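Posted in: Structural Biology > Protein-Ligand Complexes

Title: Requesting predicted complex, adenosine-5'-triphosphate in pocket

I'd be grateful if someone could produce the 3D structure tokens for the following input. Sequence and ligand are given below.
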Amino acid sequence: MSEDNSQGREYTLEADSELRFEIEQKNAKVLVTLLTGFAELFGTELVKKKKYEFGVGAKVAIFTYQGCVIHVSGQMDVCYISKETPMVQYINCHAALEQFRLEAEQRDKRGPSVLIVGPMDVGKSTLCRILLNYAVRVGRRPLYADLDVGQGAISVAGNVATILIERPASIEDGFAKTAPLVYHFGHKSPSGNSVLYNAVVSKMAEVTLQSLDANKRTKSSGIIVNTCGWVKGSGYEHLLHAARAYRARAIFVLDQERLYNDLLRDVPANVHVVLLPKSGGVVERSKGLRHESREQRIKEYFYGNARTPFYPFSFEVKFQDLRLYKIGAPPLPDSCMPIGMKAEDNKKKVVAVTATPALLHHILTLSFAESTDDDVIGTNIAGFCCVTEVDMERQSVMLLSPQPRPLPPNALLLWSELQFMDNHA
Ligand code: ATP
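-- Reply #1 --
Done. Output follows.
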């Protein structure tokens, strides 16, 4: 039931407790002000007397280590104080990572690569945010890698991305997503093309581990890696692959003892596997809600948000000018492959896509690769377009794009399974 709190109310939080709230109603707005004491939102400190605004979809917890008084006004669907939080365990994990970082600093070695794993909706992205915030607050500059192609915390879903974290996440907007390294995958689950997923993860790990060496501070700070919530069968194999690719020093397992035991058995003994509880505040999302939040991220990519609106452009591209490809050809038995090639290689093959009405609403990734002879899988991407119309008579498509100009002459576009219905009037 929704709680109308338009007059506002003060909440007094004891040490080690948190105020949790959710906003589900459209156009609802909640204002939060820290009046006294110290408080943080997923690791970012609140500034006293500053008003923070949250809108629909917000599911947050304001935690305090010392105790505080917060003023909250607006319409919320859920709002309560909880004294049961795993924050002390989380800060202990941060302290352990700091030990690794100090060690790395002294020996001029790479800092820890840490994988955050667990089933869906256990707070993996939130734990990444907390650990990254704590790291920057003590002067570190870690990398944040997001391998969760189902949601896309850095880029949009269907891609694997890494950013350098230089300052704490904004309370309202999360981490600044400037200059990310993004590799195209094109599916919303690794099962869409397992071979390609592992290849993209390997490439991302190789490039980012190397990039650590370019800056002394980042080198000792290490990488925090967010992973997919698919932890059974092939999903588990993908986690093991990621742990190897990133040369993980530690794996933090949220909530699932079975996964923890499997990892203890399967990773080398020098990798620290730690089981952590999930927070009771983490909100479970239905399939529909996951779909919605994926769409919301894509919408934000094109249209921004209420605080920073963007105004995308639409332009026509003739079929003949559309250099559209897809990664992964249909499987063939090994016996039908050219000599020296395996059926697996087909899964990483770049194949041309013919324009048909089936392209409608699909997201197309604009690659920095100039031709299919380049390493398309391992080339950063420039951005995304969305097909808003396919006109078979005019032999053209309309593309929605953040860029005003038509596509660069040699633009290479990659087909993605992701779709976005542009009904932003
Ligand atoms: P996925 O399986 O999609 O990758 P996840 O395991 O990464 O999910 P999160 O995205 O971290 O889970 O958390 C799910 C939702 O719960 C988010 O909207 C987050 O803001 C919210 N959440 C996390 N921790 C808390 C908390 N302590 N109190 C209230 N809400 C929370």
